[in-house]
Design goal:
By secondary structure, the protein is an alpha/beta fold.
């Protein structure tokens, strides 16, 4: 807890058994009130290990995808009364030690959203990011900054912290269930006018860290371009997109009811909801 704000770390997990314990060991438990892991039908021991580590665990009964996993993460975090939600991958690619400064920037009212940027400083290539991914990151970020009339060092990091009210205001039920979910969510945040801060974040690329392959990277890149164009056209009033539709802002609650009923089960102790 920081400044009276309950902090929940959410971890979208799929076959993360090799890196989960190392990641969790560096999460600052004196500040983080709860760690919530959503497992997307892993075939390894992710769920068993998460329970042994004392995490709050939810299990999808099928592999629904990275974006769908995050929808469950955020809906559960809200149901568990989070004031600040930090999204951290369990693959040890990002440094959990940065949770405190990221959450502090929100808890003390400076920003509504904080992202851990791999591009600020020299952390990306030094940490082993493949050069083609670095170049693609820079090009996509340039295009997005132009189309969205904004300025960020990158839009593609998976290390993020949010004020509760941000998540409640976004129509993330309209977002993809795949990797472009992250980018769509950030575009929605900018569209809504929330304050976004960045923090330099060293990154680690190694064999056991999760990473999408080249073909999926291309698919992701096309999705990013589509998101930016839809943002621009919606902003100009040329077309309308459900990604930015006020009428869909309450979708998360409907999504949660669907997931709770058919696609997910809680593991271990539950809380009053």
């Amino acid at each position: 807890m920081l400044n009276g704000k309950k902090i929940i770390v959410v971890m979208p997990a799929y076959n993360a058994a090799k890196t989960l314990a190392k990641t969790v060991s560096e999460i600052p438990r004196g500040v983080v009130d709860e760690i919530l892991l959503v497992d997307d039908a892993s075939s390894d021991d992710t769920v068993k290990l998460a329970n042994e580590l004392g995490l709050t665990v939810f299990l999808h009964d099928a592999n629904f995808g990275y974006g769908r996993n995050q929808k469950t993460c955020y809906s559960e975090a809200l149901m568990h009364h989070a004031d600040i939600v930090v999204m951290l991958h369990p693959d040890y690619q990002y440094s959990p030690n940065l949770i405190v400064p990221m959450a502090s920037m929100i808890a003390y009212g400076e920003y509504d959203v904080v992202i851990g940027s791999r591009i600020l400083g020299k952390g990306a290539l030094a940490g082993g990011m493949p050069r083609y991914k670095f170049i693609a990151n820079r090009l996509l970020t340039l295009v997005q900054n132009i189309l969205m009339n904004y300025k960020l060092s990158e839009y593609h990091t998976g290390f993020r912290a949010f004020r509760r009210e941000v998540i409640e205001a976004l129509p993330i039920g309209s977002n993809s269930d795949d990797f472009v979910f992250d980018n769509q969510m950030l575009a929605q945040i900018i569209f809504k006018g929330f304050r976004v801060g960045e923090l330099s974040c060293p990154t680690r690329y190694f064999a056991d860290a999760s990473s999408i392959n080249f073909s999926r990277s291309v698919k992701y890149g096309l999705g990013v371009l589509s998101t930016s164009i839809r943002y621009r056209l919606h902003k100009m009033g040329v077309t309308r997109s459900r990604l930015f539709d006020e009428a869909d802002a309450d979708q998360l609650r409907g999504y949660y009811a669907e997931v709770e009923g058919r696609q997910m089960k809680a593991i271990g102790d539950s809380v009053d909801k």
